[in-house]
């Protein structure tokens, strides 16, 4: 299964409406992405906590065998 970069960005934007988000399809297969997310919501949170917030925003897209997204390399920054 696959997910478009636009859909992935929309899921993240839904949770972080004021964030700056860049999504890149790293393999050209709509299944392996990298994302740079700059959001105020990350302030005061550890890198692990920031990434957990992003994974939660994906609404199950990375949930094991049932997920539509295989890989997401995250870089989170505080806005």
If you had to describe this structure to a student in words, what would you say it looks like?
- This protein has 79 residues and is α+β, with helices and mostly antiparallel strands.
- The protein contains two helices and three strands.
- The chain has a single domain (5-78), classed as BolA-like (GMP Synthetase, Chain A, domain 3), CATH 3.30.300.90.
- The chain has helices spanning 5-15, 47-57; strands spanning 20-25, 32-39, 71-78.
- Strands 1-2-3 form a three-stranded mixed β-sheet.
- 18% of the residues are buried.
What labels would you give this structure?
79 residues, 3-stranded mixed beta sheet, alpha+beta, 2 helices, 28% helix, GMP Synthetase, Chain A, domain 3
Enumerate the spans where pLDDT stays under 50 for 5 or more consecutive residues: none
Strand content: 25-35%
| Overall outline | globular
Strand order of the largest sheet: 1-2-3
Classify the helix fraction into a percent range.
25-40%
Rg over alpha carbons: 12 Å
N-to-C series of helices and strands: HEEHE
Assigned CATH architecture: 2-Layer Sandwich
CATH level 3 topology: GMP Synthetase, Chain A, domain 3
Count up the helices.
Answer: 2
CATH class: Alpha Beta
